[in-house]
Design a protein that fits this description.
Elements (H helix, E strand, L loop, with lengths): L11 H10 L3 E2 L4 E6 L14 E2 L5 E5 L9 E7 L5 E8 L7 E2 L6 E2 L5 E5 L1 E2 L3 E10 L5 E10 L5 E2 L6 E2 L5 E5 L1 E2 L6 E7 L5 E8 L6 E2 L6 E3 L2 E6 L1 E2 L3 E10 L5 E10 L13 E2 L5 E5 L9 E7 L5 E8 L6 E2 L6 E2 L5 E5 L1 E4 L2 E3 L2 E7 L5 E8 L15 E2 L5 E5 L9 E5 L2
Length: 414
């Protein structure tokens, strides 16, 4: 049976066995705060996963702050004598002339241009897709590539970011809008005379289809893959594939349907990641044995389809709680991510950075690399995931905490 017809409905005994073999191991890793957002012109509430360039500069977005309090795009640059300098590349103005309140991270093209989305704003109020182009003298120019229309079958509220193919086409998702009001997958195609044309590839929400995609898409073997937070045959969200058809158009196939019943993990908000063997990994915000979310692996089956397996349940003793972002995979097959909360021997935490390492013979072992304190001075409640540098250090953002309580950019030495 194909997993598209199957709910993630492991019995409680099986879920318990998984938990017992994946006990959390805490490890003290050193955190360094690279930047504390003040909540003013420099930005506030960083929700995005960072990206980096060849020089080690970091780039991200903040939902609020900037001159109009509508969010920013920022760069953090390491200094030769130590420390980092933050530069606001663009402050969003909101209203009909600009986007507002970006959640997602950014991507680069080969020419060094940045692309991203804003959740709201633009001429129709449904959010925007934008490009930032570097100019001589160090400034950046913003161009709105598409303004989503909240009053039509166009998508609206693009929480996830964009991806780019080799032809310069951009792809993304919107949480709402589309033919059924439950979100879309879209493509932005560059036009010969300039500008972009939007094409809705799929409208979510028809019957038992998935609903409300909030994560970015990924490409693998020419197909697009993503998650929806809700919907599917059991209401707990889906993993889907979009395949380009020979006659044009895209066909959606649901690879997994998550269930909200029992101890099943559900509500996948994060993006997909593939390993070299074709296994697919994602996080769920809710559900699982401790109701704190989980990590799920989908393994390809001979003859087609996928087999689902829960590889970690969050919410246990000394463990994280509620992962929102997707995972990062290193060359050794280790998975890294964040949770928005957690538990320790001293009570609740403001989130955690974790590693899942494959074990000989199968399964994964979790290590809590860093636990954000309840005081908030070291940052807290990370929405975004983490990225790795060549030395294995991790970088991420927190939505709150830090010296001015408006969030941080941090490094975890690993």
């Amino acid at each position: 049976m194909r997993i598209g017809k199957l709910s993630l409905g492991l019995p409680a005994a099986a879920m318990s066995a998984i938990v017992l073999t994946l006990a959390s191991v805490s490890a003290a890793a050193q955190e360094t705060i690279l930047y504390n957002f003040t909540g003013g012109a420099d930005g506030s509430t960083a929700l995005s996963t960072l990206i980096s360039d060849a020089s080690g500069n970091l780039y991200g977005t903040t939902e609020f702050g900037g001159g109009s309090a509508a969010g920013t795009v920022f760069e953090l640059s390491p200094q030769s004598g130590g420390g980092w300098i933050q530069t606001v590349l663009h402050a969003f103005g909101g209203g009909p002339t600009d986007g507002a309140n970006p959640w997602a991270g950014l991507i680069f093209d080969a020419a060094g241009n940045l692309y991203g989305t804003t959740r709201v704003g633009g001429a129709h109020g449904g959010g925007t897709a934008f490009e930032l182009s570097p100019q001589a003298g160090g400034t950046w120019t913003e161009t709105e590539l598409h303004q989503f229309n909240a009053t039509s079958t166009d998508g609206q509220d693009p929480i996830g970011g964009l991806i780019l193919d080799s032809s310069g086409n951009l792809y993304g998702t919107t949480e709402l809008g589309g033919a059924y009001g439950k979100g879309t997958a879209f493509e932005l195609l560059p036009q010969a005379g300039g500008g972009y044309r939007e094409k809705v590839l799929h409208s979510f929400g028809n019957g038992t289809d998935g609903q409300l995609p909030v994560a970015s898409l990924i490409f693998a073997a020419g197909n697009l893959y993503g998650t929806t937070s809700f919907g599917g045959t059991s209401g707990g969200g889906t993993v889907f594939e979009l395949s380009l058809q020979s006659g044009g158009g895209w066909k959606e196939t649901r690879l997994a349907n998550f269930s909200t019943s029992g101890n099943n993990p559900n509500t996948p908000d994060g993006a997909i990641v593939f390993d070299s063997a074709g296994n697919l990994y994602t996080t769920t915000y809710l559900g699982g044995f401790f109701s704190g979310g989980g990590v799920v692996e989908l393994s390809p089956k001979v003859g087609g389809g996928y087999t689902a397996k829960v590889i970690h349940n969050f919410g246990g003793t000394n463990d994280g709680l509620n992962p929102f972002a997707g995972l990062t995979l290193d060359s050794s097959g280790n998975l890294y991510g964040t949770t928005q909360g957690g538990y320790s021997s001293t009570g609740r935490s403001q989130g955690e950075v974790f590693e899942l390492s494959p074990k000989t013979g199968g399964g994964f072992t979790e290590t809590v690399l860093y636990r954000f304190s309840n005081s908030g001075g070291d940052g807290g409640v990370p929405y975004g995931g983490v990225i790795l540098d060549a030395a294995g250090n991790l970088y991420g953002t927190t939505s709150s905490g830090g010296s001015f309580i408006h969030g941080t950019v941090y490094q975890i030495a690993h």
